[in-house]
Prior knowledge:
- By secondary structure, the chain is α/β, with parallel strands linked by helices.
- The chain has one domain (8-315): Rossmann fold (3-Layer(aba) Sandwich).
- Helix content is 42%, strand content 10%.
- It has ten helices and seven strands.
- It has helices at residues 8-33, 48-55, 71-77, 81-88, 122-135, 154-165, 213-228, 257-264, 268-279, 284-307; strands at 63-65, 142-147, 170-176, 179-180, 183-184, 205-209, 234-239.
- A five-stranded parallel sheet has the order 1-2-3-7-6, sandwiched between helices.
- Helix 6 (154-165) links the parallel strand 2 (142-147) and strand 3 (170-176).
- Helix 1 (8-33) packs antiparallel against helix 3 (71-77) and helix 2 (48-55) packs parallel to helix 7.
- The longest helix has 26 residues, at 8-33.
- The model has no long low-confidence stretch (mean pLDDT 96).
Amino acid sequence: MSQPSIPDELKIEMYKRMVMCRQFEERVNSLFLQGRFPGTIHQSQGQEACAVGVCFALKKDDIITSTHRPHSHALARGVPVKQLMAELYAKKTGCCQGKGGSMHIGDPDAGMLTAIAIVGGGIPVAAGYALAFQYLKQDRVAVCFFGDGGANEGIFHETLNMAAIWNLPAIFVCENNLYGASTAVAKVMKIKHISERAAAYAMPGETVDGNDVEETYRATLRAAAHAREGKGPTLLELETYRFAGHSRSDPGHYRPASEVEAWKKKDPIIRFENAALASGLLTAEQITETKSVTERKLDEAVRFAEESPSPLPEDCLTDVFA
Length: 322
């Protein structure tokens, strides 16, 4: 099957967004270690091609759900970096008015529901949105990000079965980074690929190189077209790797150094840069300038966040539903 071509302009935009995702995470790590904002963080360095490849294949009216590791999903979907940074600072100008923090960010106007930190918690929510889109006859797709750990939750199986029998316009995206917290996926699954589980629900299942942004983009386009044609959901497994530990309190000693080093050679950003340089898509000067521009945007985002007001005590009584 022929692969659809990707315009050079779009490739460059995907690259710029991956760089923003990476440098945002690196900046956030530095700020966290300096004690400049509260809470904890779960970072996704190394997984940028998953977020960008999927989100760039979606339409404006589509919706995504995310996880406890949501920063790159938010940036890829178009949540403004200033509002995202302010949310981590727990400021009123944050995308969730300072009430969500790192694990509960989102912006429905950008096409991202507030992230759900419960493992697998976003899976049924995405199916609910897909059911609403179907009922209202809207040309919209619901996309759910979750990790390999989430694929062992009961709600994963219940939801995929429901989505299959109702032909819901949903894409279930498993970012398989080989570890659920500190547990290797090989210790908790007998199958080689999580995508094999799609067969139990008679839906397409595909395993994709999640460190290749173009391959991820094309796979998502196929899944989205399948959903929009009324053919139902798809299970996409994106094989990737997080360079950081599970969270900031995790040094990651359970992972062999050789394994980490091998995956760093598959760094999605370096791979894209090497290919872009070889094809003439980008020059070394353009790559350097992209990273410099991104750093300046992050400087502005940090300044915006630190100068923004904190929520008032009475703000705890707003946005409450019971």
